[in-house]
Amino acid sequence: MPFFSKKPSKKATRLFFATDLHGSERTFRKFINAGKFYGVDIIVMGGDIQGKLLIPIIKESNGRCRATLQGRVEQLATEEELNTLKGRLDILGFYYKIMEEDEFRTLSSDPKSVDKLFHDLARQRLVSWVDLAEERLNGTGIKCYVTGGNDDEWDVLSALKREGTKSFFACENEMVHVDEDHTMISVGLSTPTPWKTPREVSEEELGRMIEEMVAKVPDMNKAIFNFHDPPKDSTLDTCPMLDWTKDPPEQIQQGGQPVMYGAGSTAVRAAIEKYKPMLGLHGHIHESQSVAKIGRTICINPGSEYAEGILRGCLVTFVDGEVQGYQMTSG
Prior knowledge:
The structure is a single chain. Helix content is 27%, strand content 29%. By secondary structure, the protein is of the alpha/beta class. The chain has a domain at 13-50 and 140-330: Purple Acid Phosphatase, chain A, domain 2, CATH 3.60.21. The strands form 6 sheets. Strands 8-7-2-1-21-22 form a 6-stranded mixed beta sheet. Strand 10, helix 6 and strand 11 (223-227) form a beta-alpha-beta unit. 37% of the residues are buried. The model is unreliable at 1-5 (pLDDT under 50).
């Protein structure tokens, strides 16, 4: 009989992470398809999934339609031109509704009705995304975890919560098991921005929320922090400094060059330094694609180019509390 027996090695888990899609239909479909394409076990969406604008498409008396997009009036004479515009709006993540001139005028004079329509369309898109995820991931074994970000409205995010889903799971403010060994906690809010987005809190409040989530983690060595706000001064949060006194905010320049700084959260950084999780998944700052190591923790911001229909992401492989490798992706 042998004196020594080799302990069977554990199977590594492969995760795909993307963030900041802002309503883009094309980019979300790429995200859902990324699970099969990259051969991963888990896909994670890290927040800011709601679109930013509602574009009315107005029927004119001559049978044509018009719409104003990015300051330019688009005249749509044919069904093909209308469908082309819808495709562009889907990529940009904008919502739209075709309406008569009278309806447009009535709506324009009632901001509350505009806000209600925007929220209704935003919820409808998220409902369709949950349906798509359940359909595409059915039978694959791939789990999809999604959280909101600072740009997402609470009532819109409620569309993500659905009983009985088998592949798609809303995970904000929850601790979930991503495999037999590893857990993930998710916090979608951010610290204040110049744009006064729907879900912003102070550093102190964000720190308190993180502590509440941390208390649920059974083993920090095998934990993932899925926090939308990146850690302060980590290279994951580098962006131009803005003058908040201007409306809209303007870039601060020095010697003809924009002044850059770290716009991330001190509370997030303090939590990573204190608890030393295995992995940090972050977003929020679209232009700051980067990987940084804070202590033992690998922290990732894949960046975002959603308006171009490009899905930026990161593949991460881990086993038994150790990140074995990572690779940025774009496509």
